[in-house]
């Protein structure tokens, strides 16, 4: 019985991968990664040029993305079947081979790997290599610390209702909003209600060549990549 | 004019340093790091065996730690003088030499480097290399994902009043409490009030040889390292 290594690859720049993750990637004979059908996928893109010759690749392509509402029973059933299927395939493969699963960011922080992890635990040995989170790549790109001393930091999904977003923004010294994209107009209104609109930044693809940083007030609505995050820096309690 | 590189070293295991940070450390001719007087210091410990021969070390030793209350004017004045002094010394050094400042974790996430950064910005070129946070090392060590899907994650300082801690714990899917130590009895009471005591974990020195993981309910009071964190996993909204 071999094992599955889930390698956290960090925020996007391959140079920000950990030494351990880089070694796992370079030594891998079997790598698996999630992606949308027809795309290269962010995890695979990060390791471009690093895989050994003859390394076998398993692209785990999501069966559905935007065709079905994300909270519909059909969507959830399709995704569950997809994860069940890949868990079974990787379990079988790991009986004789070590498999490296590539994951952008930090695998245990909103990562997709956890859907395999919850299915395989107790059945396959797994090793998780943590990574630098995407949000860390983004706040580092802004050139300003996100949190100081006794700051409270909140990580919020942009899917929350507007008033709840506003309340939590108001009550946090620093915050990060994930899942922006089509939620940006609502997030902007919540920022304004919380008195945090002027200073809020939007960062997409932090640390990569596609990096983009703007004040939220400067963003045209409808022009927000889904993976962009909105962040407000703390440190306001300092003298 | 050379520059200052602040190298985020990650949670403790040197193997979890990024490729870029490792290169900066190994190539450094001048390294500076914070530590308590008389201690080796966590940042310096992480790079043990990695520094080049002849590398000059600058141990920036905090002038005061527990002798004065942390909110007293004397304490704040002493710390400000200390940061001013080191900012001036590093600025002078960086006029002719590249300097690598070693920082555990992720420099812009509650890091000490930001006290130099705020003093040196606009005066010296600085490059910040993000790192894996200490909390990420800790939740990875628990073997369970910290956040799923639309979870809200809150990072709380253990110095908050008990009722505020309890309220914020109750309102978060997942949370991390920093600065535990002597605050542990209060944190335990807050966890109980929030209905989160049973599942809460305490992790110290995640990813290092001193790693220690326990349920909070199993911790004897008075037996909590200051740098331990308390965490409660999300994922409760999953079916």
List keywords for this structure.
homodimer; 239 residues; 7 helices
Give a nutshell description of this structure.
The structure is a homodimer of 239-residue chains. With 239 residues, chain A is of the alpha/beta class. Chain A has helices at residues 19-27, 42-46, 73-94, 113-120, 134-142, 162-170, 184-193; strands spanning 3-8, 30-36, 56-62, 99-103, 125-129, 153-157, 174-178, 201-204, 212-215, 229-232.
Question: How would you describe this structure to a colleague?
Answer:
The structure is a homodimer of 239-residue chains. With 239 residues, chain A is α/β, with parallel strands linked by helices. Chain A is 30% helix and 22% strand. Chain A has 7 helices and 10 strands. In chain A, the strands form 2 sheets. The first copy, chain A, has a 5-stranded parallel beta sheet with strand order 3-2-4-1-5, with helices on both faces. In chain A, helix 3 packs across helix 4 and helix 6 packs across helix 7. The longest helix of chain A is centred in the middle third of the chain and has 22 residues. Chain A is globular, with a radius of gyration of 19 Å. In chain A, 48% of the residues are buried. The mean pLDDT of chain A is 93. The interface between A and B is large, with 55 and 55 residues. Strand 6 of chain A pairs antiparallel with strand 6 of chain B, so a sheet runs across the interface.
Shape type of chain A: globular
Succession of helices and strands of chain A: EHEHEHEHEHEHEHEEE
Strand-residue fraction of chain A?
15-25%
Strand order, sheet with most strands of chain A: 3-2-4-1-5
Please bin the fraction of helical residues of chain A.
Answer: 25-40%
Structural class determined from secondary elements of chain A: alpha/beta
Q: How is the biggest beta sheet of chain A arranged?
A: 5 strands, parallel
**Number of strand elements of chain A:** 10
């Amino acid at each position: 019985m071999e094992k599955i290594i889930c390698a956290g690859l960090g925020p996007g720049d391959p140079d920000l991968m950990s030494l351990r993750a880089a070694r796992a990637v370079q030594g891998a004979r079997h790598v698996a990664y999630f992606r949308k059908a027809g795309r290269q996928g962010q995890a695979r893109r990060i390791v471009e040029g690093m895989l050994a010759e003859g390394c076998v690749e398993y692209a785990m392509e999501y069966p559905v993305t935007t065709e079905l509402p994300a909270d519909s029973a059909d969507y959830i059933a399709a995704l569950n079947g997809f994860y069940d299927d890949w868990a079974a395939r990787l379990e079988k493969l790991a009986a004789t081979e070590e498999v490296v699963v590539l994951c952008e960011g930090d695998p245990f922080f909103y990562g997709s790997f956890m859907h395999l992890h919850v299915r395989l635990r107790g059945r396959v040995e797994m090793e998780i290599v943590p990574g630098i989170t995407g949000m860390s790549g983004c706040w580092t790109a802004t050139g300003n610390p996100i949190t100081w001393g006794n700051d409270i930091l909140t990580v919020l999904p942009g899917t929350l209702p507007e008033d709840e977003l506003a309340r939590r923004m108001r009550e946090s010294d620093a915050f990060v909003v994930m899942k922006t994209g089509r939620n940006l107009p609502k997030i902007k209104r919540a920022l304004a209600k919380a008195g945090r609109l002027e200073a809020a930044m939007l960062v997409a693809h932090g640390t990569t060549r596609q990096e983009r940083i703007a004040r939220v007030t400067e963003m045209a609505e409808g022009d927000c990549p889904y993976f962009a995050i909105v962040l407000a820096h703390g440190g306001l309690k300092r003298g």
